[in-house]
Amino acid sequence: MVMFTCSAQHAAVNSGQIDIYGWLPNGPSTMQEPPPTKKKTANEATIMKTLPGYYTADCILATLQLLSKQASDSIFLPDFKREYFTEKIPCENIRIFQEKLNKLSEEIQERNKGLDLPYTYLDPKQVENSVSI
């Protein structure tokens, strides 16, 4: 559970923040007016009054960009650059796990070929093996 939370779940929640919330109406982190309380009362003018001003929007976008950016020293799930184990059974299990991750990555890449907006956040080759900010 810890490994999943610190790798795949974190990637699913964190990596696409700029893609999703970069257009502020998708999920503004601050609102200047309360949300409408009755259906069909919102219009372009009320939405524009509700959205944050330029300075606040710029701060939000800068934060999203920073949080979505991969670290320069990222290590991804299939990569085991350090040799923590030398025993036969753990090394074999790591090799099998890497094969499964690479196969899953290939399947995801194949599925994404036909999509206008590919979902890459859970491709093992793009999921960091830990949380890094």
Label this structure with key terms.
133 residues, mainly alpha, 2 domains, 5 helices, dioxygenase
Topology:
Layout: H1 2-14, H2 17-21, H3 44-50, H4 54-68, H5 88-112
Domain Lipoxygenase: 1-133
Organism: Oryzias sinensis
Keywords: Dioxygenase, Metal-binding, Oxidoreductase
What does this protein look like?
With 133 residues, the chain is mostly helical. It folds into two domains: 1-69, no CATH class; 75-133, no CATH class. It is 49% helix and 0% strand. It is built from five helices and no strands. It has helices at 2-14, 17-21, 44-50, 54-68, 88-112. The longest helix is centred in the C-terminal third of the chain and has 25 residues, at 88-112. The protein is elongated, with a radius of gyration of 20 Å. The two termini are 20 Å apart.
Gross morphology is: elongated
Indicate the mean pLDDT. 89
Count of helices?
5
- The fraction of residues assigned to DSSP E strands is under 5%
Radius of gyration, rounded? 20 Å
SSE topology string: HHHHH
